Amino acid sequence: MPQDVVINFKDVTVEYDGKIVLDKINFSLENGEFKYLIGDTGTGKSSFLKLIYRDVLPSAGQVKVGNYNVSDITERQVPLLRRSLGIVFQDFQLLPDRTVYDNVAFALEVTGKKRKYIRQRALECLSMVGLVHKQQNMPGDLSGGEQQRVVIARALANEPRIMLADEPTGNLDPNASRNIMDLLWKINNRGMAILMVTHNYDLVRKYPAETIKITDGKLSKIDPLKLKTI
Amino acid sequence: MSVSYVLKEGFAGFRRARLSAFSSVFAIMLAVMLLAILARVGYNAYNLAQSIRQDVEVEVFLHDISEDRTASLRNSIESHTIVTNLQYISKEDAMERFRAEFGPGSEVLGSVNFLPASFKINVDTDAPVPEIVAFVEEVSGYVGVDEVKFNRMGLELLEERLNMFLLWGGLLGFLIAITAMSLVFNTIRLTIYAKRNLIKAMKLVGATNGFIKRPFMVEGVLHGLVAAMLALGLVWLIFHFLIPLYLPQVGIIAWPFGRWYFLTGAMIVFAIIMGFLGSRWAAQKFIRRASAGG
Q1: Checking phi first, is residue A41 left (phi over 0); if not, alpha (psi -120 to 50) or beta?
Q2: Which of B206, B291, B294 is nearest residue A79 as measured by Cβ atoms?
Q3: Looking at chain A, which residue has its C-alpha nearest residue B291?
């Protein structure tokens, strides 16, 4: 895998109960690149992301993420792989019983970093997403857009080279969606590779980048500007 | 992972999920309390039975035999391991006792000494009745022995009741322990099941299974500790207040081994072990199963 490639799929197949979801696909994401992954519901977009953070293993082929050969790593290495990724979900997956600050700090606590560093870095990340003033709020007190910004702050905490975003604007209103996209764009401009799964073709057209579509388990590159709103 | 983090999270878990913490504490408390009551009553019942057995004497009445024969009989009887104490009562001693018991009325007998010499034997309180019976039968056959008396029926009845009590008590204790364990484990399992999304989110950011599990175990130990304190309070209330109030003839049932700290210590240790094992088992199961993704 070339030095600047951070994710590489080689002839990857995923099967569930004999049904092929992804069929011998090849894919790569380079350092600092932004790519969209689109496709109808149930076409395997989430499985695609799960392959990257090792929640699903390929039936065949090879998945490489940074220095990890995902198909071969042990259970003990899975947390290390995940710490090298920033993951953003549509349903946020925040820890509902902890404050905004604690949610961001948690991503650092798991790495065993020093308390002083954790405090400094968590506040730095919250400041990047403009939420330092809400650090003592509980996630439930925030709007959807704000909660997603907390998730992005948490994803940034360990300074990963790759961010995976699974429909990050799926639960947000248009204004909040634009704010999130601006934020992701800014993060990408700083050099982080981003792979974003989305159904929002308006956003893809507004923030154009290389777009890959999954159809019948195969990947195809399409022109983002020619996407039609559903 | 820092110890302070684990402790902080363990304590915070208690605060964050009050209802589930309450359920788990209540289940452990109930189990520990029932077992403690059973242990305290059981111990006292056993002790009572033992003290009754201690009073059971085997009396061996002798013919008019020589001192040598008496000494030889004494040796033969004492050689049985079942014998814990043997006292020789001569004809004169027997008469003395008779006079002391019957007072001036006994003077009518004048100087006639019709009472036989005897041995008063205490036997091992743990010896089963058939062993005592076999001993009695053997002694009855010795030359010079006239008659051997002991309260066989009373002893058999006592042993039968004690065995019954120990059997049913043990069975009840076992059932309580099993029921309590499954109650505690399931309560903790539900508590952790309610946190499955939390566990998923933790796995997502790269937390190891151990990192996720340890605060749950600290929380389990805390549940056990709190439950033990509550159970201790209730046990004290029952034995020192309720029983003396409603069953004054029973009085205060003593602590096992005469000291409060044996049962108290056992209760605390048992409660902590239940909390620890319950949370460890449940956490392990869910953490392994939980998928990180949505």
Answers
A1: beta
A2: B206
A3: A55
What element of type H or E holds B68? helix B67-78
Contact between A81 and B206 using a beta-carbon 8 Å cutoff = yes
Contact B24, B189 (CB under 8 A): no
Q: Are A56 and A47 in contact (CB under 8 A)?
A: yes
Amino acid identity at B284: Q
Task: Give the tens place of pLDDT for each residue, B189-230.
Answer: 787 787 787 788 888 888 888 888 888 888 889 999 999 999
pLDDT category at A211 given cuts 50, 70, 90 is very high
CB contact under 8 Å between A110 and B206, yes or no, is: yes
Token pair, residue B155, equals 């002893």
What does the alpha-carbon distance between residue A76 and residue B259 come to, in Å, rounded to a whole number?
A: 49
Q: Is residue B5 less than 8 Å (CB to CB) from chain A? A: yes
Which residues in chain B touch residue A90, judged by CB atoms under 8 angstroms apart? Answer: 294
Please state the φ and ψ torsions of residue B228, each to the nearest 5 degrees.
-65, -40
What is the DSSP-derived secondary structure letter of residue A54? T
Domains in chain B and their CATH numbers? 3-51+157-292 (no CATH), 57-150 (3.30.70.3040)
Give the burial class of A1: count Cβ atoms within 10 A of its Cβ; 0-12 exposed, 13-18 middle, 19 or more buried: middle
Which 265-284 residues of chain B touch chain A by CB within 8 A?
none
Retrieve residue B182's tokens: 């499954």
Q: What is the pLDDT of residues A23-65, one digit of tens each?
A: 999 999 999 999 999 998 888 898 999 999 999 999 999 999 9
Give the mean pLDDT of B95-99: 80
Rounded Cα distance between A24 and B53, Å, is 84
Q: Say whether residue A89 is in contact with chain B using an 8 A CB cutoff.
A: yes
Nearest residue of B to residue A105, measured between CA atoms: B205
